[in-house]
Amino acid sequence: MRLDRRSIIAAAAAIATLALAACGGGGGAVTADDMSLGKADAPVTVIEYASLACSHCAKWNKEVFPAFKTKYIDTGKVHYVFREFATAPQELAAAGALLARCSGKDKYFTVVDAVFHAQDEIFTTGDIRGPLLRIAQTAGMNEDQFNKCVSDEKAFEAFNARWQKYAKDANIEGTPTFFFGTDKYDKGELSMAEIDAAYAKALAAKK
Question: How far is residue 141's CA from residue 133's CA, in Å, rounded to a whole number?
């Protein structure tokens, strides 16, 4: 089932123009638009560019992120920034990002995690609206609020502007892509061993 949203469906054309992989200089200064976890003054900033429609991003979120968060974010070693990107299916990438932001900063990462966990159901059934509505309700929204959220033209345009700027400024060609400080890692999911090495290198570069 498609979301009842013309502009989200129309996003496919804009996204296709960059010929991004379906999942595949530095990440730039952290801004007020960014969603982040951890201490802002942590010794290393890690930026992840991820699409809520990317299966590799979902796999990393489920299998690696919890350990990464415990070891680096919760201990004050990393300021983690999550930047929403767009990959196919574009309706899910856009609607998931809008929904997460509508939920507020206190629930943003909970909603992102829920969307990633709902991917298998969405891909199996083809139903985007049902699982996202359920997630919205769990986050405290009613159906009317959900509908307004995913049909917010201004928010949708802001989402498009953000990921297109990321693609240009940081040369993002697929997701997930990570920056540890100024070092770019764009080969997909990172293991904890690879994260340990990337963190050590970024930390040493600051000394």
Answer: 9
Q: Which residues contact 169 (CB under 8 A, 6 or more apart)?
A: 28
What spatial distance separates the first Cα and last Cα of the chain, rounded to whole Å? 53
Q: What is the rounded distance in angstroms from the CA atom of residue 135 to the CA atom of residue 34?
A: 22
Alpha-helical (H) ranges within the chain are: 6-16, 55-63, 65-68, 90-102, 108-125, 129-138, 143-150, 153-169, 192-205
- Main-chain dihedrals φ then ψ at residue 130, nearest 5 degrees: -55, -55
The model's pLDDT over 57-67, given as tens digits with 9 standing for 90+, comes to: 999 999 999 99
Q: Is 78 helix (H, G, I), strand (E, B) or coil?
A: strand
With 0-12 CB in 10 A as exposed, 13-18 as middle and 19+ as buried, what is 4? exposed
Gap between the Cα atoms of 152 and 160, Å rounded: 12
Residues 6+ apart with CB under 8 A from 178: 46, 47, 48, 49, 184, 185, 186, 190, 198
Which residue carries 């929904």 as its tokens?
99
Domains of the chain, by residue range, sit at: 6-205
pLDDT digits (tens, 9 = 90+) for 127-166: 999 999 999 999 999 999 999 999 999 999 999 999 999 9
Fold exhibited by the domain 6-205: Glutaredoxin (3.40.30)
The answer to whether the CB of 189 falls within 8 A of the CB of 56 is: yes
Phi, psi for residue 50 in degrees, rounded to 5: -145, 150
